[in-house]
Amino acid sequence: MVDYNKNFWGETPADIKLRSNPTVLVGVFLISGFVANYFFGAVYAFIQTICGLGYTYWAFNYSRTIIERIEEEKQEKKEIAERERKQREKEEKEWAKAEEKRIELLNKSIIKLLKEKSVKMPASDIDAFLKHQDVDEIKELCEDMYHNGKISRTSNYRYFILTEEKPKPKKASAPKSEEVDVEKELEKLKGLLDKGLITQEQYDAKSNELLGL
Question: Model-level pTM?
Answer without folding.
Answer: 0.44
